[in-house]
Structures
1.
Amino acid sequence: MRFLNLFLALAALVVAVSAWDKLDHEIFDLVSAIEGAEGKGTSFYSWLDVSPSATTSEIAKAYRKKSMVLHPDKNQGVRNAHDRFSRLGVVSKILRDPETRKRYDFFYKNGVPRWRGTGYYYARFRPGLGTVFVFLTIVTSGVQYLIQKLNYKRDLERVEWIVQQAKSAAWGAKMIPGEGQRKVKVNLGGQTRYDADGNVIGSRSVDMVVEGNDVFMVDSDGSLLPVNSSTALEPSVVRTWFLALMGRLYTKVVKRDDTGTSAEDQTSTEDFEGEDGEGSGTDSAPGSSNGTHTPRESKKGPRVATSMAGGKRRKTVRKR
């Protein structure tokens, strides 16, 4: 029963809002302007100093008397004198017309509604381009952050599944932990399929190492990369598109050295400069016996075991 009453009240509100026309909106604006200039609670009648039951002739007489007081010629230098005089004319016009006065009397007795419809507020507080941009930025960044959370949850489930697969392959069906390291192969492609010749198709296996409760993925260079909850990329507001864009601009524009080269570009050229011999890996390092330079040790952070995506870094040659 309570839900039905609430539904009927909302339906009545929707009908009332949809019934407000241009005249109603004009009355709303005029009421707000008069209360703001003349004081809270000031009505059309109290401003003209007439009773709500005043006749049309009484309202006209009160208007002529009030207009002589508020005329801009007699209020030179007074702030908003023209606005007050203009409002007085509109008030007099509304109260002297039976139809418009009847409409005003409805709001005078029942009060001006707080919610006046989306069309009313949009027409009077129309957002600018900046407001729209800020709104869209907040909305799209929020949606992107929500997607990050969903992806993070999915990645955690994926990592947990891979860990269980590795432990099951290392410990057997009874899942009894063994001692030492055990190297196993884990199929990341789900169910293994076979062709007519018995060859495995549609599978994607990786080498993994299980040591106690720790699981590692074997990289191409033989190094062990831990696979656990920290492998999944946690959601971050900083990685939403707008803040990420601002961070990149800050790095490229603000964090520049004295030569005008950004830190990112400088790192790239330092790693790969010297195709003609200057600074290349073929130079003799001090103290080396074979005349070759020892390659710089690569630093690898945690990788997501489920992505397994790789690529070659493009070489950048500094122009002379």
Note: Confidence is low (pLDDT under 50) at residues 12-18, 272-306, 308-320.
2.
Amino acid sequence: MTTTPTDASTVETARSRAPEGPRVAAVTGAARGIGAAIARRLGADGLHVIVADLPSMQEGVAGTVEAITAAGGTATGAETDVTDEASVEQLVATAVEAGGHLDVFVANAGIAQVQELLDYDPEDFRKILDVNVSGVFHSYRQAARQMIAQGHGGKIIGAASIVAFRPFALLGPYSATKWAVRGLTQAAAMEWAEHGITVNAYGPGIVGTAMWDLIDEKLAAKNGQQRGEALAENARSIHLGRVSVPEDVAAMVSYLAGADSDYVTGQTMLVDGGIQFS
């Protein structure tokens, strides 16, 4: 099999075609936790950040916006329900209205439920699929449509997890959704590469968030442990010796959103301290 070299003069990188002025990023699920840390980091990187979350989470959205602006950045709040594609389309429109274009979209919104498979309610199963899979699908393609129309490429980034490589007990449906995000990310990267769009995902490990507090509580109840013991037991698998914080994940997203990752696409980058090697 032979390949024909591409004339370098005909290949425009996303960096060379990018518009002048501040880049604009939209981050879903940004009212708290990892999403808020990502929004703050992108704001510190100089991007105008559209901080998006559910209508019920607007107090947290306002807090994230305030944190970004207090640090000298620029941010705009938005109400978004990722299960409604029209709502995601409106988020993209808000980003364009705020900054003239959309350069980065972080599909961070997601939910988790800690429950054994035998006890999992079918309605809860449908809900987690709707948020974690359909929500990422809506986000990816609405962002891509805008970036293709602009003609200067862009960065699309999704929330996967260590469970996209190694499922955890009591997180069966959540694990399934994150495997789906990993596959969707690879397919989107293939389809949109010709438009100068990179599509990647980040995979947090054990992070000090409310989800892991709940996992610890459920495992402790099942195994007759004290609160904190189950988390500590899982944390012993971390080679770097500490549980992650949201800022660890935000640093990876900063890289995926920046020019240094222009030649990286279709990847799910683990941020787990060395639990799982891919």
Note: The chain has one domain: 21-207+245-271.
3.
Amino acid sequence: MTDHGAHAFDFIHGSWRVHNTKLRDNTDPRCEEWVEFEASSEVFPVLRGVGHVDRMDVPDPPDGDPFEGFTLRLFDPVAATWSIWWSSSRRPGHLDPPMVGSFVGDQGVFLADDVVGGHAVTVRFEWLAGASPRWQQSFSYDGGQSWKVNWVMDFSRRPGVAGGT
């Protein structure tokens, strides 16, 4: 079982292959076309373990040029919550609003309000910790009454790389 506090994300440290399944245009609430692509991820702790950095490289996405993604995750010990910020080379200089939440057991849920593709949305990240972690993103266009999954990442350790098996 995952620690509910500062160590809740320790499972993701290391080097990963990331299989992505996402809606071709996750900014369009009507899109139903799914695409798949591969990425790699390197995750390491910072700030003496109360945070970590995740660099994701996507060399051949189905919807444009290669890109690099960056995630910063920080634990707030007073609130007992994690905040997650995302940025990518596709939107230089832009940092998405923080997703805020926590883990219960091996499942983490993180929420934020944003505007995506001109639509007001509530964004939900769901993490399933473990040896083969899974991340899933959903959007709600109705204040959280219903959710539409638009991106899923399945992680597997990169063998022979520091942090891998």
Note: Residues 10-157 form a domain with the Lipocalin fold (CATH 2.40.128.20).
